[in-house]
Amino acid sequence: MTSSLDRRAILGRGLILGAATMLSGCNYDHLNHPDLADRFLTGMSRWNDRVQANLFSQTRLAPTYPASAITRPPRFNAFYDIDQAPQVDPATWRLELTGRIGDKRPWTLGQLRALPQESQITRFICVEGWRVIGEWGGVPLGQFLRRINADIKARYVSFQCADGYYESIDMPSALHPQTILALDFLGAPLTAPFGAPMRLRIPTKLGYKNPKSIVAMGVTNVFPSGYWVRQGYNWFGGS
Q1: Domain extent listing, the chain
Q2: What is the pTM of this model?
Q3: What HEC string does the chain produce?
Q4: pLDDT tens, residue by residue, 19-74
Q5: Is CATH 3.90.1170.40 the classification given to domain 67-231?
């Protein structure tokens, strides 16, 4: 997956720079300077984030599908091979909470499963271009944030993962009714390759915005960035 994303980043960089040259009449030699190019691409990415955020609606739902449409076998994706997926002991796992949250007591898997659960059959879209349909079940993130007395007027929700991955989303997306802290996949508890014991499932965003094997969650007004965002990818990541 990493090599494919690297190729996509290089291609995207070239296309954006070429388009900018034609639209602005700028001398390509100036845009081709690494520092100027990086600043330009960062500005374009932030502009894209603002456009996507303005178009986003908490009442607009991602499509849902019948069970007959589920992709079988499911497709694994990560920045490592499947045999490198982190093995997290569900008995000792705790969800640590940080930032603008009133009740920061860690949560166990049993406590999360005792909360009201919802399931969805939705489409997972990868930035590489492929897509699959799966069934996920878990706790609506918006309900959980309110339960822990999180500041839902804050700007961001961030996630840290057992595999070293990290990601963040905007608060409106966190409160979207289809955004869940997923505990189950295809009607059974998550397994290691698919993000055990808990992952984010957010069908309104691309796959890299769905972190797996989450161990900590925070609420903040300070931009937390993300693993792929730091390598040049769009932060909002809407699908």
Answers
A1: 2-55, 67-231
A2: 0.79
A3: CHHHHHHHHHHHHHHHHHHHHHHHCCCHHHHCCHHHHHHHHHHHHHHHHHHHHHHCCCCCCCCECCHHHCCCCCCCCCCCCHHHCCCCCCCCCCEEEEECECCCCCECHHHHHCCCCEEEEEEEECCCCCEEEEEEEEEEHHHHHHHCCECCCCCEEEEEECCCCEEEEEHHHHCCCCCEEEEEECCEECCHHHCCCCEEECCCECHHHCCCCEEEEEEECCCCCCCCHHHCCCCCCEC
A4: 444 444 444 454 455 565 445 444 554 545 555 555 556 689 999 999 999 999 99
A5: no
At 158, the amino acid letter reads S
